[in-house]
Amino acid sequence: MNGFYWKPPFVPAREEDLLSSLMTEKIGEQKYPGDFVPSGNWPNVAPGKFGPINALSPKYVGDSVKNFVGAASKPFILWVRGDSDMIVSDNSFFDFGTLGKLGYVPGWPGEEVYPPQPMVGQTRSLLEKYTAQGGSFEEVVIADTGHTPYVEKPEEFMAAFGKVLK
């Protein structure tokens, strides 16, 4: 939690409450992160049937991206992120492609086969396609902040969010 959710040396005022809440997360094959099945492709596992991580897999997303961009109703999207987010980033330590490239997961087959996922770049690209089809978005990047801008810099977060609520 202290190493990935926020940017050190930040310590939340209610750290113990946040930790206690985090510890209530149910883990396992049918919970977080989910199950996996064997694969002949590196890293030798593929998404299974259960869990929130598997729900984001292209195996299950289907036409969701196309449907999102092509939706008739396009509400404004506010994308707030920390500039130092280590979870959702273009070089995330939560991505096997990044870990393989850095040598932390053996047998990485290289960029041509399993490139790191540029999560920020991919999100921005999708939102730009959304805009090109009539939608709109604003990307608010909060400096010196990790994965939880609403915890680390609540005033800055609420300034951006408050505009949308009005």
Mean pLDDT over all positions: 95
> Beta fraction of the residues?
5-15%
Number of helices: 8
* Largest sheet data: 2 strands, parallel
**Biggest sheet, strands in spatial order?**
1-2
User: In angstroms, what separates the terminal alpha carbons?
Assistant: 32 Å
Instruction: Estimate the global geometry from the Cα principal axes.
Output: globular
User: Which structural class is indicated by helix and strand composition?
Assistant: alpha/beta
H/E element sequence? HEEEEHHHEHHEHH
What proportion of the residues is helical, as a percent range? 25-40%
Gyration radius, in Å: 18 Å
Q: Ranges with pLDDT <50 over ≥5 residues?
A: none
Q: Write down how many β-strands occur, each being a DSSP E stretch of 2 or more residues.
A: 6
Keywords:
single chain, about 170 residues, alpha/beta, two-stranded parallel sheet, two-stranded antiparallel sheet, 8 helices, 6 strands, globular
Can you tell me about this structure?
The structure is a single chain. This protein has 166 residues and is of the alpha/beta class. Helix 4 (64-70) crosses helix 6. The protein has helices at residues 15-22, 52-55, 58-61, 64-70, 96-101, 119-132, 149-152, 154-165; strands at residues 27-28, 32-33, 36-38, 45-47, 77-82, 137-142. It is built from 8 helices and 6 strands.
